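Q: What structure does this chain adopt?
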Amino acid sequence: MSKMSLSTPNIKGNEWKYVKECLDTEWVSSAGKYVELFEEKISEYTGAKYAIACVNGTSALQLSFLLAGVKENDEVIVPTLTFIATVNAIVYNRAKPIFMDADNFCNIDKDKTIEFIKDKTIFKEGFTYNISTKNRISAISPVHVWGNAANLDELFLLCKERNIKIVEDASESLGTIYTKGLFKGKHTGIVGELGCISFNGNKIITTGGGGMILTNDPILATKARYLSTQAKDDEVRYIHNQVGYNFRLTNVQAAIGVAQMEQLPKFLDCKKEIHSTYKNELKKINGLSLLETPDYSKNNNWINLLKIDSKQYGKNTEDIRKLMDKKGIQTRPIWKLNHLQNPYKSFFSYKIENAEKLVNNSLCLPSSTNLANEDLIKIIETL
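A:
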């Protein structure tokens, strides 16, 4: 019996056709028409003026922090509830994370973050400094977890006032759009100075591995392209005046991405249907519910999160995970919180409370666009 996975690729469009063209023409590396075409498709879809394709979401984040002006020993505000790649990308720039709590949508707690900036930092000579560590806070990286849009209205205004650059981790939120507030009509990832998308195999569309930097700033876009292609100042004589990176996406991967973008509307419809089925069916089970989505955005429903009241339901998170595993159904706890991870235990954290409750009382449910209706029935019946 094959296992029902959490989130798998859906490769049923023109992927083979476009990849074959790359192979037939021998344009397989980081040059070729599909890289630029994929960037154009993402730019058009998200509304970003510029999109720069990278080898993965982590490299996109690493480069974006650099472009945002994050320097050695600077601090970057980041939620503790996120995949560790967000934090690693900060440290790759020799900067330090400041960990924040999560709200009820699993996103950065904007109230505690605002409280921290107002009460625990000082603004002097055009920059914000952590009163406790004396380090400059140069950026913040809100993450749109599970595809839920982070609540950024007030944070955006405060960060602008305090010269804290916003680098959005939109790895999971392709297709998520704000419907209310300051950013009504905007796609996640284009609110701040820079935003990043991931095309890992488990994302709503995939290139196998890949990422994209989004920005509306032409200077940042030009610098991103320059640095992501080894910072060549003379492509004939190979002169390099800066340290660059080999971060450019390949044409073969981009070809898959173009084919995937053609299917994105269908994938979003499918995700919406899965979310609706889970929500309606879980209402019938005492002690179980589905994590709500914010009412200020249209969310892509990338991953559905099961919320468990173990007293009412009679089983805890680990009991359910083991039961599902025996039935061939993959579920997954929320990531271990980053402020508790061995590499990051010594870094600054601020009033982490709700994130711990979410980790202890939640499970990620299978959410692939490949799921059939009978798969969903089996999952619900197992619960």
